[in-house]
Specification:
mainly beta, Immunoglobulin-like, 2 helices, 6% helix, globular
């Protein structure tokens, strides 16, 4: 047995290929933080990556190269912390300073019926480039697309009448930023946060599919009991959008509370939380 273990040790000791040389080890980060590498600084047509960390109070972008030292930071406001510190890269430099911009969601108003606002910030300078925070409307997250085929990107928002959510409206803003309208878009498996959230009487659930596949989208209560099956069938690749009117499989309205929605496709699964209000 000892000879067998010694042989295993020797085999694994010499299994490290010569090109696998350690280049850098980061400092230790708190387990409460999420982290990764993001396209941050633009040079010509290329984006250089930076290491970032995010937790419930702040977002930090490290210095260039292999570094664990923050160079740019964003401190979340109380409404943004309430929304779960939701900061997302737009993948574009809207003000031409060579750094990627991001949007941040915030929850405003009373806890029984939050109103969502959104702003776009330049992470490098902290400048607010765009903000929608109107007490009469609940705003979706923004997206960028060349919708009129003129080679320039438009900024698209959906706003819902608040607090009744009786109607919704599209708002389209010019950005002046060149977009590659012929670029092939590659989708990945991605379940997005529903909006509005919390909601009454209905909400929209969007998700991306990398390829055509059999899809299940199901609603569960906090006890894990299935409430509603929204999708159970084949869907094509790309962006999908499904509405839920807050009813169960019997057609009855579900009570106020927290619910989970789960997307399953191609052996992958993702779950997010939402709140139903009455």
């Amino acid at each position: 047995m000892k000879k067998y273990l010694l042989l295993l040790v020797l085999l694994f000791s010499f299994n490290l290929l010569p090109q696998f040389q350690l280049q850098w080890t980061s400092p230790g980060f708190s387990y409460s933080k999420l982290s990764g590498w993001m396209d941050f600084e633009k040079q010509g047509d290329k984006w250089l990556k930076r290491l970032y960390t995010i937790d419930s109070t702040r977002f930090d972008v490290m210095q260039s190269g292999y570094s664990g030292t923050p160079q740019y930071s964003y401190i979340f406001t109380a409404p943004e912390i309430l929304a779960g510190a939701q900061l997302y890269s737009l993948g574009e430099d809207l003000n031409g300073n060579g750094f990627v911009d991001a949007y941040i969601l915030a929850y405003n108003g009373i806890s029984t019926n939050y109103r969502q606002s959104v702003k776009i910030v330049d992470i490098a300078s902290g400048a607010i480039l765009f903000e929608k925070n109107d007490q009469n409307f609940y705003y979706s997250y923004p997206s960028l697309s060349d919708i009129n085929d003129d080679g320039l990107l438009e900024l698209i928002l959906v706003k819902y009448e608040y607090p009744l959510f009786a109607n919704f409206y599209y708002e389209v803003y010019s950005t002046g930023i060149t977009g590659n309208k012929d670029q092939l878009v590659e989708y990945s498996f991605n379940l997005k946060q529903n909006y509005p959230n919390p909601f009454n009487p209905e909400t929209k659930i969007e998700f991306d599919l990398a390829e055509a596949s059999l899809v299940k989208l199901e609603i569960f209560d906090v006890n894990g009991e299935k409430v509603k099956t929204l999708v159970n069938g084949d869907l094509p690749s790309g962006i999908q959008s499904i509405r839920w009117d807050g009813s169960n499989n019997l057609g009855n309205r579900v009570p106020t509370g927290v619910y989970m929605y789960t997307l399953t496709s191609g052996g992958k699964s993702s779950t997010k939380k939402m709140i139903v209000l009455k």
